[in-house]
Amino acid sequence: MDNIEQALKQYFGHDTFLPGQHEIVEQVVSRRDALILMPTGGGKSLTYQLPALLLPGLTIVVSPLIALMQDQVDRLKVNGIPASFINTSLSNTERIRRESEALNGSLKLLYVAPERVMADNFLALLDRIEKNVGISLLAVDEAHCVSEWGHDFRPEYRQLWQLRERYKHSPTLALTATATERVRDDILTQLRLRDPYIHIASFNRPNLYYEVRQKNQNTYAELVQLLREQPEASSIVYCTTRKGVDELCECLCRDGIRALPYHAGLTNEQRTEHQRRFIRDEVPVLVATVAFGMGISKPDIRSVIHYDLPKSLEGYYQESGRAGRDGLPAQCILFFGHGDRVKVEYLIGQKQDVNEQYIALEQLRHMLAYGDSQTCRRRRLLSYFGETLNVENCGNCDICLRPMALEDRTIDAQKFLSCVARTQQRFGMRYIVDVLRGANTQRIRDMGHNQLSTYGIGKDRSVDEWQYLGRTLLQQELLYESTDGYHILKLNALSHEVLRKQRKVFISVPVVATPAHQAKTSQQVLDPASQRLFQHLRSLRRVLADEQGVPPYVVFSEATLRTMAQLRPQTRTQFARIPGVGDCKLEAYFKPFTDEIRLYCQAHNLSMGLEPSLVGREQERDAVLASLVGPAPSSRMVTLGLYRAGRDIEAIARERGLNLRTIIGHLVELIESGESIDIERIVLPDRQKIICNALQMLGGDMLKPVKEFLGEEYSYEEIRLVRALTRQAQ
Q1: Are 488 and 426 in contact (CB under 8 A)?
Q2: Which of 247, 355, 553, 566 is surrounded by the most beta carbons within 10 Å?
Q3: Are residues 456 and 420 in the same domain?
Q4: Looking at the predicted structure, is the pLDDT value of residue 515 above 60?
């Protein structure tokens, strides 16, 4: 086991394991079955990728989505790990080539979908692989799909036990980020794991801020404000329906938010293109149905916003968990309205199986309780998965950050319950609220309820206030609601105690209207100088990723770039110490990143090669300077100002102490964000036309094929600028 830590640094660039990883790797390397529950961002993938390198033979990874396979393989290859996938996106020639690589021992990991892995011809291939090189490990990712109680049940997963029986000497590793106790038991049974090592990590994600906002006529304006607060940050906005996605996306674009839609109604080509542009940071906002996201490994999503009600708490945890996978602060906002419940119930009603309907209604009940809750959001989420939060106040949700007070609302509760009684316990909450507020509706007049003593006695409070009181009564079990789909309010023994003045009713009300949003993020903010350097490094990262045809985070995570911006490494030893820098990335990226850091630091009089202990001193100095000179314009806008003043790009690069590639990157990003920039001074019109034709013929996903087609006469920088213009025109 001595080489486990060495392999971790060599291939993945980390000096230490995340909690639980080392023990899991040891168990898997000793060929023991295992069930691994780790939250998103907890490092599940490494628990089978590292053993795959240490064990002889080939690791087979069962993965549900093509996008996940491509993303994982890109990351592994950049780290020097031989990996591949086989799925329907490949031509026959390419599929045969990859099968040959698996048979001759050229690969260490092979990703396949559950539908393919159980096909007779693929099982025959696995038999040959077992005979030739051996199957070292069977890893079943997203293992909750095996259970009908899971939030994404897939019948194909039910057949995977046959792999465990067919290859008895290969350990099976089941992995998931979300599973209740019932789902965990189902995974163990369905996959027939033998004496498995079971690791259940904490579901707590301390870096995520949870907030529930009531859905009302101002919700869209609030959404726009949230997105404008972090204009370049990656955000996902979830809607229930395709129509909702399209309409919301259109509104956001009209209001200046760069957004793309994603749902099953788009063509495969459209979905692929929109997903590609999002994960490569070309557009910051993706508006999507839950068809998007499962298996997407983009680590730097800063916001996940649910514009509509999710169907289950387990699904919500999984979807919101796509934020902040890099461990940096991120926010999870739910716009919660009971009107959305009707939509979800309608969808549940379309299910043919009565048992499936029952399961779905149970899941919805937990989701509604989360939205209505006035206790810590994190505590309720963890409780759903059987975990107890050890502190009273999580310090990073709207409830815990918003001072609350208890208010005696016994008299209002008596009015509400009395109205339920006088209307014969035959109506839902909205009708009761209408009677209390004296609504002059045809239905109320027809029922004669405008003659009741409770009619109009609640005019002094708004609809929202009465509904909040009603939901609180339900939460405190002072009232209950029928579960037959009609949501009729019913009294119980505790209701009568309130009516007889034997029990008081207290509800939580906020002391201030606005929560102290994201209070924890201040601990993570870079000092101004390091923040500006970080943005330069992000631009360089995007250029390098563009040339390789991979998402920027495959080059380096934002957490790695932040550490670089703080420590400003210059020697190979210093660069190798940065978390996320393994042997392959040290060789590939040492020079471009240290050159960029050196040029920037020389131009801005910053120290380089800092030890962690000196960072605080640097930050303190830069904070003082920033307070004296005030906020600086963004680096891109400085470049744009100089360019529009007539400077050529070489002069701008010299004056700013930056790479020419970085200056071009600024112009490309500005064009893609909608700025009108004339590039004829850089790329003559005739050359633009030739490059544009090449892009149309070859596609612009990867620049390398276009560059090779055009030859040495054309530079990457010219191609990137022309591509940005063509995308702006689309």
Answers
A1: yes
A2: 553
A3: yes
A4: no
Residue 536 — φ and ψ, nearest 5°? -60, -45
- Write the DSSP string, 484-507: SSS--EE--HHHHHHHTTSS--EE
Confidence (pLDDT) at 93: 92
Same domain, 541 and 632: yes
Banded pLDDT at 374 (limits 50, 70, 90): confident
Look at residue 354 and tell me if it is in a domain. Answer: yes
Max distance between CA atoms of the chain, in angstroms, equals 90
Question: Does residue 494 lie within any of the structural domains?
Answer: yes
pLDDT of residue 615: 54
Closest-CA residue to 579 (of 536, 612, 538): 612
Find how far residue 197's CA is from the centre of its chain. 28
Average pLDDT over residues 144-153: 72
Shared-domain flag, residues 122 and 224: no
**pLDDT number for residue 62:** 92
**Residue 8 vs residues 51, 299, 410, 422, 667: alpha-carbon distances, Å:** 10, 19, 61, 69, 38
Report yes or no: 86 and 110 within 8 Å, Cβ to Cβ: yes
Please, which residues bridge with residue 195 across strands? none
Q: How far apart are CA 556 and CA 140, in angstroms?
A: 27
Residue 86's closest CA among 103, 101, 98?
A: 98
Which CATH number do you get for residue 651? 1.10.150.80
Residue 222 belongs to a domain with what CATH number? 3.40.50.300
3-state secondary structure of 722: helix
Does the residue 325 lie in any domain? yes
Domain boundary among 353, 378, 396: 396
Q: How far apart are CA 218 and CA 220, in angstroms?
A: 6
pLDDT at 616 over 60: no
Is residue 540 a contact partner of residue 592, using CB atoms and an 8 Å limit?
Answer: yes
Q: Which pLDDT band, with edges at 50, 70 and 90, does 132 fall under?
A: very high
Q: Are 14 and 160 part of one and the same domain?
A: yes
Same domain, 158 and 232: no
| H/E segment holding residue 467 | helix 463-475
Q: What is the pTM of this model?
A: 0.69
Give the integer Cα–Cα distance in Å for 217 and 201.
Answer: 40
Which pair of structure tokens corresponds to residue 529? 């100088």
CA separation, residue 43 to residues 46, 47, 76, 381, 535 (Å) = 6, 7, 14, 20, 26
**Helix segments in 350-388, DSSP class H:** 354-372, 377-384
CA nearest 506: which of 480, 476, 479, 467?
Answer: 476
SS3 category, 106: coil
Q: Are residues 276 and 376 in the same domain?
A: yes
Give the alpha-carbon dihedral of 637, 640, 641, 647, to 10 degrees.
Answer: 150
Q: How many domains does the chain have?
A: 4
Read off the pLDDT band of 152 (50, 70, 90).
low
CA distance to 529, 593, 618, 619, per residue, from 568 (Å)? 11, 9, 11, 13
Domain assignment present for 419: yes
Residues 347 and 382 in one domain: yes
Range of the domain at 442: 405-510
Q: Which two tokens stand for residue 60?
A: 């087979």
CATH code for the domain of 411: 1.10.10.10
- When pLDDT is averaged across residues 402-424 and rounded to a whole number, the result is 89
In this structure, the answer to whether residues 620 and 710 fall within a common structural domain is yes
Q: What pLDDT was estimated at residue 730?
A: 61
pLDDT in tens, 422-477: 999 999 998 999 999 999 999 999 999 999 999 999 999 988 889 889 988 988 88
Confidence label for 18 from pLDDT (cuts 50, 70 and 90): confident
What are the tens digits of pLDDT across the range 541-592?
Answer: 988 988 888 889 899 988 899 999 999 999 999 999 998 999 999 999 999 9
Boundary-marking domain end, from 200, 226, 241: 200
